[in-house]
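W.,

You were right to be curious about this one. When I first looked at the sequence I had no strong expectations either way, so I just let the prediction run and decided to look at it fresh. Below is the sequence, 151 residues in total, followed by the output.
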Amino acid sequence: MQYHIFNEDFYNMGNEYIELRLIDTYEGTDNELPFYWWNIVLKSQNVTVGKISFRIGHNYHSYYNGNIGYEVDAEYRSNHYALLACQMMIKVAKYHGMDHIYLTCDFDNVASYKTIEKLGAKLIEEVQPPVDYIFYYEGIPKHKIYELCTR
């Protein structure tokens, strides 16, 4: 696998509401894509409200896992912080030559799929992840798989 060079311009990014502060980068393996991983920080309070990661490239497993992973702490949900952070990922995708990205969530995670749909991603399918998916576990729920064009 050829590893991508991480761009230091993305180590800290922000808009008027939130800042993404790099926690770490990961070079990847044969199955896991290289990724950036950030804290989502609310600027007005200088408090971490969640985390977001961006996986560079595509492979069999990223179709089910998505290129973006995010979580917002319970007390900060319903403020669109995940959406604001995801919007910043489009620039990262473009830099890495990705004309589309996959976003996934459990089929019953309403908050997550509403965020993904507000981002402009289109639903490809609802699917049960296969047993050979790297993050498969007994009882894994169906996933909604979306695609977002970054051109």
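Here's what jumped out at me. The beta strands are 12-14, 18-26, 35-42, 47-55, 68-72, 100-106, 122-127, 143-149. And, maybe more interesting for your project: The CA atoms of residues 98 and 133 lie 22 Å apart.

Coffee later to discuss?

I.
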